[in-house]
Amino acid sequence: MRQSFEYHPVIGYRFIPGLKARIPHEGGGYLIRVNDCGFRCERNFITEKKPGIRRVLLFGDSFTAGDGVSNKYRYGDLLEKKIPNLEVYNFGLPGAGTDQQYLAYKEYATGIKHDLLLIAVQVENIRRVAGHYRYWLNERGEQVCYAKPYYELVDGTLILRNVPPRKEPIHEADLSKEERKFIAVGRFPKLKKMVKLVTRVGLKDLAQKAIRYQLAPEYNSPDNPAWQIMRAILEEWINNNRQRVLLMPLPPYQYVEEMGDPSHYQARFREVASATGCMLHDPLPDLLKYSLEERRGFRFQKDVHLTPQGHAALATSLTPILEKLLDDLEQGVHK
């Protein structure tokens, strides 16, 4: 696979600026086009905004960047087609936690004039925020560990650590036993192992119940350390942005396909919205209106990222909310 990323001394990495490439994928491959700042966006980012244009700054991870689909099929690009005079600056960065997305905002976006900041938080990102290191697959398909920037919460204040992060890979054996606990892991690894075990012995119903119970325990309590860091990052980000903010939690497929109870993460994000006064849009209720067969088509067979159908459903859910917010802003309706 062609190398698509380069080192960045603050965020940790970004796409190679100006890159145009076709990425192999189970869906038949997809095209990426990267702007001069190193993000998958059809536009280069400019500070000023043309008269009559409404601009949204969109931040998220690979679900927002669009892993698995070409640029034009992503929900951010679809919003431009659905809402008149809208341009979306897509800052999505695959593999990034909300901490790195906040750093990208501070590094690239604070001076850009915009009408709305849209923060799309993939629910599992809470694990990335708690991590100091992250595994990646290199061009040879080998699992490699890299350091990442991260925040610590000290007496209620966010402290940025590990900037610049080490550029070279890190051998896990060189880390202390304590530090190894801070290697961010993938999507629910213990859960996957348990489901494989119970399904192998034919206990599918038990697997479903187990998923419901253990899906994302970091959201179960407002006092969970990982959630407290996530919440502090979101609140600082929202409060420091001068324009209106829309916060959107993106549910993993387990919630979309009703294999997990979303009530805990939904409660936590409502707390952030209440504390900051930002707008909150949870697309899950809209997604659940589709049939189970349709919902299963929102992700690829092996890759859990959104298919074009999944992006289209997300854009359909988001469009009326976003359109009303932008209309209200034009008419001078504030928080």
Describe the structure.
The chain has a five-stranded parallel β-sheet with strand order 6-5-7-13-14, sandwiched between helices. Strands 9-8-12 form a three-stranded mixed β-sheet. It has a two-stranded antiparallel sheet with strand order 1-2. The protein is built from twelve helices and 14 strands. It has helices at residues 62-65, 75-82, 98-109, 125-129, 189-200, 204-214, 225-240, 253-256, 263-276, 284-287, 292-296, 308-330; strands at residues 5-8, 12-15, 20-23, 30-33, 54-59, 86-90, 116-122, 133-137, 143-147, 150-154, 157-161, 183-184, 244-250, 279-280. It is globular and about 55 Å long. With 335 residues, it is of the alpha/beta class. Helix 7 packs parallel to helix 9 (263-276). The protein has one domain: Rossmann fold (3-Layer(aba) Sandwich). The chain starts with a strand and ends in a 5-residue tail after the last helix.
